[in-house]
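User: Please fill in residues for this 620-position structure.
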């Protein structure tokens, strides 16, 4: 109990003001931009970049810095504990069209919309197929789960408060069953009042009993009423079920996507029933995960060009000290070269990381490598970004105990980051301490239930659920009493094959990840402010830097993963960890950890290749 209280104090105190000065340079990608407006938390007062595009601004941790310049997209960045330098490239605010091959029509088929549904948040599933809000006729008004505040009592409150120009009839009392009205209220009701109540709340048989039947009370009008005596209300399409009245029983927290079809062209499939418009709702529980894993590279005619740099060529970009030390012929010679460079680079944590890895990997000199870190450990203190880089590197070298100590420190520094708990739990699994892993999983779920941690139902929740269920599948005999493992509920694993999990230590990192199938077609994940600002904002808001990909056995051959690193708004490198799970979801499961130091920018290069059969999917 004391440990839990201590954790709660840490989490609550983490958000206290920690003022710091943020500085950097803003450019258009080639030249500095003068007079870029920079404000804190969208305040009316702003500072401006100078003639050289430079700026300095004071901000607190968790503040949001907004960069605005006419003709360019606004950029909003959340200030974190390590934020200090933010060098930005502004992007022109233009609508770019993807390069497509038109074969008779450029309209996407229902099959393509189905495949894109998990990752395209502008697609809604109706009783008559999929609709893309971006290409649908007329204006489709849209809400996603992360835009829905769970404080609303029912769907009527949500629609009444989030959409202007619509009329909502009824109250949320119907969400809790029949409403009892006292005898005094009944006695005062005139005949006209009773008839009015009947028309809104239910049948006339209940009018004088003191019970309002609220089951059909909700009506929503999204179009102008053509007749005062017989207005057309909107119908509801909830996971394909057509309802004439508002679903007061629906838990607001269970809504995944909501769309209002208020024009005749969009709602024509519903016939005369949809004359008053249609409110389409996709729920989380009503959206089961697909049993199939689709190769998204095959959705378009994407073929990889030949301008991908190999890992061997990439090594030529390594610091000069790496070239010198790798040329050494013995451990003693390598130590002498290290001592020589220490005078110039000994105060740089990335030099320490390079040397620690080199001596363990090349010479197996674990003791000397550990001495390097101990002598320079002060460079890593209270810096979760550097500590995660060290943890990644330790995992790749098989030093899971050392990685565990680093993750403990990161959790201490970042108890409000969702990923801190997943990293800690997985680390305990690596050092074969399932009881401690179970404790972390349980603590995480408790903090979510209590509202101390915020739940990201779109991204991280699915990743965490898969990890937790995999833990229960493989380690349940170690966390329950002997003979009772069969009583522990474990959700049926929905995937078996090769699973790829990518994590990066710096949340400011921007990059393109390219997945190439055996037929040389590719799918690209664009993790940049220019292409996916909302994704990055969500990651920073909830505190995680990870994405997973699943590969099944339907397309055998060699799969390649390539990278184009775009920087992290400072001059420091980013560390990317790729965990490859083979035979995932089976008792033959094994994993391999690969770590890459990203420093060369705007140069597509190889990361690694795996020989498996696969289809590719981004799971949200």
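Assistant: Residues filled in for all 620 positions:
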């Amino acid at each position: 109990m004391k440990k839990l209280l201590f954790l709660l104090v840490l989490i609550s105190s983490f958000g206290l003001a920690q003022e710091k000065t943020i500085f950097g340079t803003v450019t258009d990608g080639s030249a500095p931009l003068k007079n870029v407006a920079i404000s804190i938390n969208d305040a009316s007062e702003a500072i401006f970049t100078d003639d050289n595009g430079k700026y300095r601004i004071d901000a607190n941790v968790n503040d949001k810095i907004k960069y605005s310049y006419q003709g360019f997209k606004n950029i909003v960045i959340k200030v974190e504990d390590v934020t200090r330098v933010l060098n930005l490239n502004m992007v022109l605010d233009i609508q770019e069209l993807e390069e497509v091959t038109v074969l008779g029509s450029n309209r996407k088929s229902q099959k393509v919309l189905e495949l894109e549904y998990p990752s395209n948040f502008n697609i809604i599933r109706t009783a008559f197929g999929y609709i893309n809000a971006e290409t649908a006729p007329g204006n489709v008004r849209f809400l996603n789960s992360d835009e829905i505040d769970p404080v609303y009592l029912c769907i009527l409150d949500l629609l009444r408060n989030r959409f202007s120009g619509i009329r909502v009839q009824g109250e949320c009392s119907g969400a809790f069953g029949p409403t009892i009205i006292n005898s005094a209220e009944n006695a005062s009701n005139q005949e006209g009042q009773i008839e009015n109540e009947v028309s809104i709340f239910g049948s006339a048989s209940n009018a004088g009993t003191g019970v309002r039947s609220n089951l059909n009370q909700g009506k929503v009008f999204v179009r102008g009423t053509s007749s005062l005596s017989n207005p057309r209300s909107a119908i509801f399409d909830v996971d394909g079920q057509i309802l004439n009245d508002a679903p007061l029983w629906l838990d607001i927290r269970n809504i995944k996507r909501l769309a209002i079809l208020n024009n005749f062209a969009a709602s024509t499939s519903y016939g005369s029933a949809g004359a008053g418009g249609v409110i389409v709702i996709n729920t989380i529980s009503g959206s089961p995960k697909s049993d199939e894993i689709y190769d998204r590279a095959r959705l378009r005619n994407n073929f990889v060009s030949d301008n991908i740099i190999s890992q061997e060529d990439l090594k030529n970009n390594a610091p000069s000290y790496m070239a010198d030390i790798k040329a050494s012929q013995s451990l003693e010679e390598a130590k002498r070269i290290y001592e020589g460079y220490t005078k110039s680079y000994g105060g740089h944590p990335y030099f320490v990381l390079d040397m620690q890895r080199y001596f363990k990997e090349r010479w197996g000199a674990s003791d000397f490598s550990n001495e390097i870190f101990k002598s320079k450990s002060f460079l890593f203190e209270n810096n979760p970004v550097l500590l995660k880089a060290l943890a990644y590197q330790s995992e790749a070298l098989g030093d899971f105990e050392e990685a565990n100590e680093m993750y403990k420190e990161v959790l201490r520094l970042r108890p409000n980051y969702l990923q801190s708990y997943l990293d800690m739990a997985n680390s305990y699994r690596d050092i074969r301490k399932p009881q401690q892993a179970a404790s972390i999983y349980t603590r995480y779920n408790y903090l979510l239930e209590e509202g101390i941690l915020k739940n990201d139902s779109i991204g991280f929740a699915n990743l965490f659920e898969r990890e937790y269920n995999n833990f229960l599948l493989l380690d349940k005999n170690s966390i329950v009493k002997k003979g009772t493992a069969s009583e522990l509920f474990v959700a049926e694993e929905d995937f078996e094959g090769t699973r790829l999990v990518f994590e990066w230590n710096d949340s400011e990192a921007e990059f393109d990840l390219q997945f190439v199938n055996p037929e040389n077609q590719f799918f690209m994940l664009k993790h940049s402010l220019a292409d996916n600002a909302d994704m990055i904002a969500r990651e920073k808001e909830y505190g995680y830097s990870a994405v997973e990909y699943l590969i099944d056995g339907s397309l055998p051959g060699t799969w390649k993963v390539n990278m184009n690193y775009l920087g992290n708004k400072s001059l420091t490198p980013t560390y990317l960890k790729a965990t490859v799970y083979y035979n995932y979801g089976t008792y033959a499961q094994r994993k391999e950890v690969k770590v890459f130091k990203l420093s060369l920018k705007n140069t597509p290069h190889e990361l690694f290749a795996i020989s498996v059969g696969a289809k590719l999917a981004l799971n949200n």
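For context: Residues 128 and 269 are 7 Å apart (CA to CA).
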